[in-house]
Amino acid sequence: MNFKLKNIGPQLITIAIVVLVFGFFTFNAQMNMENRGIEFGYGFLSQESSFDVQFSLIEYDGSHSYARAYLVGLLNTLLVAFIGIIISTILGVIIGIARLSPNYLIERSAAFYVEFFRNIPLLLQIFFWYFAALRALPLPQDADVMFGVSFLTIKGLFVPRFVWENLDIFFYSIIAAAISIVIIRNYARKLQENEGKQLPIFSISAGLLIILPLLTFLFGGVSLNFELPVLKQISTTSFIYEGGLGIPPELIALTLALALYTATFIAECVRAGIQGISKGQKEAAASIGLTPRQVLKLVIMPQALRIIIPPTTNQYLNLTKNSSLAAAIAYPDLVLVFAGTALMQTGRAIEIVSITMFTYLSISLSISMLMNWYNKSIAIKEK
Amino acid sequence: MFKIIKQVTSFVAMMAVLFAFSTETMAAKKSKTLKNTQKKGFVRCGVSQGLPGFSNADASGNWTGVDVDVCRAVAAAVLGDANKVKFTPLSAKERFTALTSGEIDILSRNTTWTLSRDADIGLTFVGVNFYDGQGFMVRKNSGMSSVNDFKDGISACTNIGTTTELNMRDFFNSKGISYEPVAFEKADEVVAAYDSGRCDTYTTDKSGLAAQRTKMSNPDDHIVLPETISKEPLGPVVRQGDSVWEDIVRWSLNVMIEAEEYGVNSSNADAMKTSENPAIKRLVGAEGELGAAFGLDNEWSLRIIKQVGNYGESYKRNIADTGILPDRGPNQLWTKGGILYVPPAR
């Protein structure tokens, strides 16, 4: 009993202090708000927002509610985070491996890239990509055609928009392909374990992914048309592309800056992971006759990943949180739309900032949960 | 008998104490903000991060502008020195929070007076020191000469968190024009983006357009369209709940405007003490007890006029002579065809 109390006592006191401190601040805030005639409540979320947003993944305009505006900002933040994480991962892995290349030129340029981009403040880089790129890009009417159908201009990247018919059938075919790939992989693994034969899994998977959806075009009634961006004159000197899909330069600059910046850290994680595997592993793998590619894929990478994943998770979290710098260059992310415009139109600082903080917390926790789950699945399984 | 005397004396003493407290600046006691300001020795004033003509800091950190002058007037009135102001530059986003949280005591930052701001979020607007309206700036060579030339797909650069964003939507919706809003947090970035060609038009209050035009790489390449799409009465704001402080700020502004109406300015204010016109005499503190209502002395208004000047002087110094808006437009006295009209200081 006495022993138990000794253990629990300090913890209880800690909890009590935390509760008291929070209670004090909450009480204080409430008192102050009451004194100053500020009301507290989340009712404003259902009011009409009456402001427009430049770029939205869902249908939105000022006649929708503040809650909808929140969703617009959230989705825009997730979009930047998602694209940023993918690009920075690909780039980071390439640069990380390049830093270990025996080729002097490749190794040096990778090192230069890392040192250059990670040592300049991110906000400056965002400004650089946005304003420098804006100045450098042509006006819509002067833009050169890229790949015959796209235009990169100061007002954004204009690409053809896909116009689908029977899109659902197309999706089903992709799902079918994915399922058959899983089955074939399982079969291939058994085949290798039992008979030592190897199937060209990659070619088969790729083939399935291409052929099945293609068949839907021929027999499933699926059709795909392109809506091309067309130049339209607004006034004597200003033009814009209509039709097609317009990707705002703010999104491009922000994603680019975030990806280039974060890739340097991921590259270092990758390098650390690979260098963390002792040379003996590589030599042993080579000595049993594995090809260099197999050595990397089957021996080095599975072990290196265990070192790479936890610090890389940090970088993913950083990238997501850094995306809030979007406000500086007018990309309508959660901070700009909700903690910016909505906050100012309603004046509900405490409510909106608390929602925004909670949202970032949730996003970060979800990412780290996913990464921890992945980390667990690649950890050494002791039998 | 002795008991009665004791009771009477204690009653008298009590009354004396009460009376002493009530005469000794009753208003000052009621106004926490005034008391704190006098204790600190400076007025805490929230201004913009740099809008020429309204609130702008020069290289050595001296703030000038018509918004700045409102705070200086209050400092002259309550502290006796127009220079005893601590300026806090605020973004559009921070301004109301800074005021309601008590970080500043006056927000004089080209802020539009609207119903929801006044009624909803713990603020009180005390008056209008500049009648503005939202307009559009376009490149001269675009051939656009009126908002009727706007076409679908036009992109408009602006600031977030201002009434501008809402007016813009109302305007384009009523015209049935689809547009791309590009909203930045800071004015400098809006200007840079518009200047580089990202947007076809830049929209904000017309005074702001005129001021920002001077920052463009080539000011003459841009014009402000003639139409005004909204009413933007800009004025100082105080926290709700301190009516004495509210009155001090309101009447500091009103005195500047009324001084112009009666031709009292910084150079002739002292001489006006002997004027025949009682309204002028009241204004310079030679007649009446106007300051007492706020818990101030009788020369509070004289100090404002002497140290800051009347509204016309402030406008000329900050907005006209700097070439921002030489024409006073609606910001002219009602006696001269404008709409500046303040209740009488009496």
List the keywords:
heterodimer, A: 383 residues, alpha+beta, MetI-like fold, 4-stranded antiparallel β-sheet, two-stranded antiparallel ribbon, 11 helices, 8 strands, globular, B: 346 residues, alpha/beta, D-Maltodextrin-Binding Protein, domain 2, 2 domains, 5-stranded mixed β-sheet, 3-stranded parallel β-sheet, 13 helices, 14 strands, 16% strand
Question: Could you walk me through the main structural features you see in this protein, from its secondary elements to its overall organization?
Answer:
The complex is a heterodimer of chains A (383) and B (346). Chain A has 383 residues and is α+β, with helices and mostly antiparallel strands. Chain A has a domain at 66-99 and 247-378: MetI-like fold, CATH 1.10.3720. Helices cover 67% and strands 8% of the residues of chain A. Chain A is built from eleven helices and eight strands. Chain A has a four-stranded antiparallel sheet with strand order 1-2-3-8. In chain A, helix 5 (167-195) runs antiparallel to helix 6 and helix 7 packs across helix 9 (292-322). The longest helix of chain A has 34 residues, at 2-35. The model of chain A has no long low-confidence stretch (mean pLDDT 86). The model of chain B is unreliable at 19-24 (pLDDT under 50). In chain B, strands 10-9-11-8-12 form a five-stranded mixed sheet, sandwiched between helices. Chain B has two domains: 27-129 and 238-326, D-Maltodextrin-Binding Protein, domain 2; 134-230, D-Maltodextrin-Binding Protein, domain 2 (3-Layer(aba) Sandwich). In chain B, helix 4 packs across helix 10 (243-261) and helix 4 (66-79) packs antiparallel against helix 12. With 346 residues, chain B is α/β, with parallel strands linked by helices. The interface between A and B is large, with 45 and 53 residues.
